[in-house]
Amino acid sequence: MWCRYRGGVRALRAGTAQFTQTPPSSSLPITRRLTASTRWRAPVNPQPRRQKPPIRSPLEVQMLPTREDNYVYLVRNRRTGQAAVLDPSDAEPVLDAAKKLGWSLDLVVNTHHHHDHTDGNAGIKAATGARIIGPRAEAGKITGGLDHGLVDGDVVDFCGVDAAVIATPGHTAGHISFYLADQGALFAGDTLFALGCGRLFEGTPTEMWTSLSKFDSLPDSTLVYCGHEYTLANLGFALSIEPTNAALQERGDRIRTLRAHSDPTIPTTLGDERLTNPFLRCHLDEVKEGIGMAGCSDVEAFTEIRARKDVF
To answer: 56: pLDDT confidence band, cut at 50, 70 and 90?
Structure first.
């Protein structure tokens, strides 16, 4: 069964869909550094920018559920045929999906080194010749190694579209995210989830809060593609922090309906997260008061909320 979601995203499941063969391509990623004058950075005391999403993105994103709750993303440029896979947990389901779609994978993209995001790297490269790119800081830990390491400020050719590399340490020390400004899309890996954020395996609360704050200047309409379907569990925790948040209560109804039908809650939008995700709301006085820490710093509030989530 195929289900279409906003932004042209589909949830990929075993089914009987018909596919159109796509000519293979041989694109290689091109990475460049931003100059000091053009480097993207979050402003001081930012105000979220609001804009309409692109009318029609050249990129098509297919969500492939794997393992217990992982999402792998297959991305293709409709105009050029370039195709990539982001954070492949396993090779076989990715290769099967690409074959059904008629896509020729040119690129494997990793946000961080954890095995449930990289175990498919070597098998996909062996079968397709695709190049592997990911965080340079974690090159020695990534399954299959890297053909090209990325650092904060790089701009990578992501299926023919510019993707800005943003260092987002916290979940792991070298975690990176990819922001496609012209497409209104953020591939956040395990940094930002719907109603949640990544557990701090290698980083500190300050690092994670700083990483999440880097998204502050992005538009509310930005589509967020994260690494796991944790939303229903995250909902229960979010309600424990803000039980009277009307936007959260309304969103909770939608989430329960989606999950009752085994439908994905991803992609989310930054706008929805800013209204309902406790980890993006640590700067608000009402949240600090709600956790009994009125007048504390934003990092202190984040640290407390993250600690509560760890034992929730």
So the answer is: low
The one catalytic residue in 87, 114, 157, 272 is: 114
pTM: 0.84
Three-state SS string over the chain comes to CCEEEHHHEEECCCCCCCCCCCCCCCCCCCEEECCCCCCCCCCCCCCCCCCCCCCCCCEEEEEEEECCCEEEEEEEECCCCCEEEECCCCHHHHHHHHHHHCCCCCEEECCCCCHHHHCCHHHHHHHHCCEEEEEHHHHHHCCCCCCEEECCCEEEEECCEEEEEEECCCCCCCCEEEEEHHHCEEEEECCEECCEECCCCCCCHHHHHHHHHCCCCCCCCCEEEECECCHHHHHHHHHHHCCCCHHHHHHHHHHHHHHHCCCCCCCEEHHHHHHHCHHHCCCCHHHHHHCCCCCCCHHHHHHHHHHHHHCC
pLDDT above 60 for 196:
yes
Q: Is 228 a catalytic residue?
A: yes
Whether pLDDT at 39 is above 80: no
Q: Which of 152, 157, 171, 272 is catalytic?
A: 171
Examine the residue annotation and report whether 175 is marked as an active-site residue of this protein.
Answer: no
Q: 264 vs 41, which has greater pLDDT?
A: 264
Q: Write down the catalytic residue from 87, 106, 112, 154.
A: 112
* pLDDT above 60 (res 55): no
